[in-house]
Amino acid sequence: MIGTLLWGAGLGVGLWALAVYAFPPRPPLRTLIDRLHATPAPQPILATAPEGWVLRLGGPFVKPLASLGLPSARLRSDLAVTGKSIERHLADKATLALTGLVLPVLMNLVLIVADIAPGWALTTVTSFLVALGGFLLPDISVRQEAARRRSLFRHALSSYLNLIRVLLAGGAGVDGALSDAVSIGKGWAFQQLRRALVTAKLTRTTPWSALSQLGTELDVRQLTELAASVSLAGTEGARVRASLVAKAAALRTRELTDAEGEAQAATERMSLPVVMLFAGFLIFVGFPALASVLGAM
Fold first, then answer.
1. 3-class secondary structure for 212-272?
2. Containing domain of residue 99, as a range?
3. Same-domain check for residues 15 and 120
4. Which end of the chain is more exposed for a tag (fewer CB within 10 A), N or C?
5. Higher confidence at residue 82 or residue 229?
6. CB neighbours of residue 44 within 10 Å
7. What is the pTM of this model?
């Protein structure tokens, strides 16, 4: 009975997704009018990676998943940080979910040939659980990768602040300090900073506006604050060296705190296998004695 209900629910969801793909819902007229009168958003600074075969395989499921409001706004920000497009992410979710749904069925067919099949009820439940895990796995991996890149960017930003401070102390202008400091560093974080400054030159905007946009796209508050401080120096001639020193020190303190927290979490995770091994040893030693006492009774 449970297997029949699950198969019926899966068939209904599949038919609904096929209907949404074949006949996508039309947006309301108010939404179309707002799009016509809306101010065009600036082009994103963060670049996305080229698409692969996964998008071609899971492409038919992108529109039905997007109609459900996937991914969320927070996950869209994480995808921008990792350089992964929304279409590719939705295609990954659909591909892994379909793989998880079909793989247990194929294994059950193989076991049926070997005459050791566990039954279709267990196979159905396993298929849906594995499909759910495959559907959620891309979200988890994107969040972890985005958190790692943000931490790496904050670490590089503290070095960038120190370089700007040194150049400003040497008499360089604000624009020159921003460009010269970013040309020294290497790695993914400095590549994004260079890309933002090059975008500012090509679009004839101020460097601090491009840095502020990059901070918004990366969801790194420290970079947005840096852009605000540099804009004061560039437009009103304010002295920002002391502010840059304080921001760099705050970033280093945060990185040290995060590193200590990760080390303590790793230590706690290492203690769990030791406790489980000790519990297994106690059971291995005490079970014969307990069995003999219970047998004597």
1. HHHHHHHCCHHHHHHHHHHHHHHHHCCCCHHHHHHHHHHHHHHHHHHHHHHHHHHHHHHHH
2. 2-25+45-147
3. yes
4. C
5. 82
6. 12
7. 0.74
